[in-house]
Amino acid sequence: MTHPCRPIYILLDDPRVLRVTLVILRKKGFVDLNLGQVLCQNLLDVPPLRRSTLASEEVQRIVRPIRQPLFIWGIDALFQRELSLNVPQLIDRVARRTPTTVVAWPGYLANSMISYAAPGHSDHRTWPASGITFLTDPREIPGNP
Questions:
Q1: What is the pTM of this model?
Q2: Domain map of the chain by residue range?
Q3: Residue 145's pLDDT is what?
Q4: Cβ neighbour number for residue 107 with a 10 Å cutoff
Q5: Which of 86, 99, 77 is nearest to 31 (CA)?
Q6: Which helix (DSSP H) or strand (DSSP E) does residue 94 occupy?
Q7: Dihedral sign from CA coordinates of 11, 15, 16, 20
Q8: At 80, phi and psi to the nearest 5?
Q9: Of 51, 79, 99, 114, which sees the most CB atoms within 10 A?
Q10: pLDDT band with cut points at 50, 70 and 90 for residue 1
Q11: Count of H helices and E strands in the chain?
């Protein structure tokens, strides 16, 4: 079992997984947050050169009022190179604020590494997967039925 403050990642290898996960987690009382969409809207009027310095702080501001279990999805925007975010580290900080945090990971898990985008793609990035809990079935996520 994961530490209460560590996020649970669910792999999005099929678009249907997101739809099913949203339904299941809403029934379990999770708040769902399309973080990428909200972040982009909030940074729209910020000059591009300042976005990287404000992005992490803005994510924290977005999640600060949320005290319920949280399902974060739509995080592709967080991987924009101009933002210079360490996405797993940022998600770890967000997870400290909620009882349970589940993240829809739009990437891959292989060889003890998590990645975003395929190797060779300009957005490809990797991080160590140590300490990260991955699930493939949203029914395994703890919460009220």
A1: 0.90
A2: 8-140
A3: 58
A4: 23
A5: 99
A6: helix 87-95
A7: positive
A8: -60, 130
A9: 114
A10: very low
A11: 4, 8
